[in-house]
């Protein structure tokens, strides 16, 4: 009897608990929601309200493709602006599919902390959204550009970011990594810039260059070309570089090198109360494009001369960029502070609270070593006929 009673009680408990364990804690019908692909943020100069431009996904029963439309709303806070969007759409916005977050340059200069704090706290928002800063007069212009019917601008931007290692003119960053860099004492944050380019009847987006931050505020900008050389020096390990660099070792003799592998070492030296940073860059490259005529850079002697000139060119450009960042902006985006922290923790404890001031007075040296590993399917220049 006791055995059967025990079985009955066990079955009853299982049945009862199963009702509480099934389903979702925050159940919503899909038809009650608008799924967000990307968000652009501006600020009204007069009212000081946030202006949200939101790209939402639209699924059509008659079509297999997913399209997008644009909503625009305002609010005194980011959260209020999102809620106010319900007035336009009649549905609650769902951020779980959002991939892009775009700030206006003006808003980034004021400080991005309130926005990324909301994204980081909200249970529905993704903190791995890619962050961009508009180089146009507003962030909304990026999402409101003219587009084809089946184009989803935010997702196109996300796809472009995935292929950043092939380009080199920007360094992608997610919300969570931006938060880490803003909170980090030994490296400053950077965010890529985006713009709309119009050509005849078409327009497209282009990600190129980086905005430089001091704390949570944007204070300056590097061009796409400057960023390609900055990437060779940055402390953080990111995607493996596979982009190309173009040089002109002789007048009208352009040469293109494709990076196959690039490594760097940053070694702090402490002499007579001065801090010196030695940056060593080692590059394995492919000789991917030669001048149409003239010097045969594949030949051993000419190749060695080419290597020396390219090494010197990279060293000079890297030094110019370091000086610009150091003296014009005074913020350490390379991560020299991180190298000091690892190599001399005692010194770092003394200087970390005044690192931006100390950083302006450090001396930097760049040393580049290039190894040409591959020269394509031919070792000759194309000779033009008479």
Q: List unreliable stretches of 5+ residues.
A: none
- Which geometry do the CA atoms define? globular
Structural class: alpha/beta
Mean pLDDT: 85
Strand content: 25-35%
Major sheet attributes: 9 strands, mixed
Distinct helical segment count: 13
Q: How many angstroms separate the termini?
A: 109 Å
Task: List the helices and strands in order.
Answer: HEEEHHEEHHEHHHEEEHEEEHHHHE
Helix content class: 25-40%
- Tally the beta strands: 13
Radius of gyration over alpha carbons?
27 Å
- State the domain count: 2
In words, what does this structure look like?
Belongs to the GerABKC lipoprotein family. It holds the Pfam family Spore_GerAC. Its main location: membrane. The chain is α/β, with parallel strands linked by helices. The chain folds into two domains: 198 residues, no CATH class; 146 residues, GMP Synthetase, Chain A, domain 3. The protein has 13 helices and 13 strands. Strands 1, 2, 3, 4, 5, 6, 7, 8 and 9 form a nine-stranded mixed beta sheet that branches. A four-stranded mixed beta sheet has the order 10-11-12-13, sandwiched between helices. A hairpin with a 2-residue loop joins strand 7 and strand 8. The chain is globular, with a radius of gyration of 27 Å. The N and C termini lie far apart (109 Å). The mean pLDDT is 85.
């Amino acid at each position: 009897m006791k055995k059967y009673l025990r079985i009955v009680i066990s079955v009853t408990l299982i049945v009862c608990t199963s009702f509480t364990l099934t389903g979702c804690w925050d159940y919503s019908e899909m038809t009650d929601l608008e799924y967000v692909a990307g968000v652009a943020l501006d600020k009204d100069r007069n009212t000081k309200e946030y202006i949200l431009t939101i790209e939402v996904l639209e699924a059509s029963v008659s079509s297999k493709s997913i399209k997008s439309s644009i909503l625009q709303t305002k609010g005194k806070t980011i959260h209020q602006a999102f809620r106010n969007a319900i007035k336009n759409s009649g549905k609650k916005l769902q951020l779980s599919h959002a991939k892009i977050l775009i700030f206006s340059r003006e808003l980034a200069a004021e400080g991005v902390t309130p926005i990324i704090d909301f994204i980081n706290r909200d249970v529905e928002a993704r903190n791995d959204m890619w962050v961009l800063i508009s180089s146009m007069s507003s962030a909304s212009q990026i999402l409101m550009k003219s587009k084809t019917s089946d184009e989803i601008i935010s997702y196109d931007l996300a796809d472009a970011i995935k292929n950043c290692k092939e380009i080199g003119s920007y360094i992608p960053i997610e919300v969570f990594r931006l938060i880490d860099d803003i909170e980090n004492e030994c490296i400053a944050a950077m965010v890529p810039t985006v713009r709309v380019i119009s050509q005849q009847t078409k327009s497209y987006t282009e990600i190129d260059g980086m905005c430089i931050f001091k704390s949570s505020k944007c204070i300056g900008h590097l061009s796409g070309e400057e960023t390609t050389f900055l990437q060779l020096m940055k402390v953080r390990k990111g995607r493996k570089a596979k982009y190309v660099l173009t040089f002109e070792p002789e007048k009208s003799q352009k040469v293109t090198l494709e990076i196959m592998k690039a490594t760097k070492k940053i070694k702090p030296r402490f002499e007579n109360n001065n801090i010196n940073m030695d940056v060593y860059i080692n590059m394995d490259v492919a000789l991917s494009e030669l001048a149409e005529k003239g010097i045969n850079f594949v030949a051993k002697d000419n190749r060695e001369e080419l290597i020396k000139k390219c090494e010197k060119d990279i060293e000079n450009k890297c030094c110019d960029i370091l000086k610009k960042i150091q003296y014009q902006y005074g913020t350490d985006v390379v991560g020299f502070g991180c190298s000091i922290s690892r190599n001399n923790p005692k010194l770092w404890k003394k200087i970390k609270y005044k690192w931006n001031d100390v950083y302006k007075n450090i001396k930097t040296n760049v040393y580049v070593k290039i190894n040409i590993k591959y020269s394509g399917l031919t070792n000759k220049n194309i000779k033009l006929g008479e």
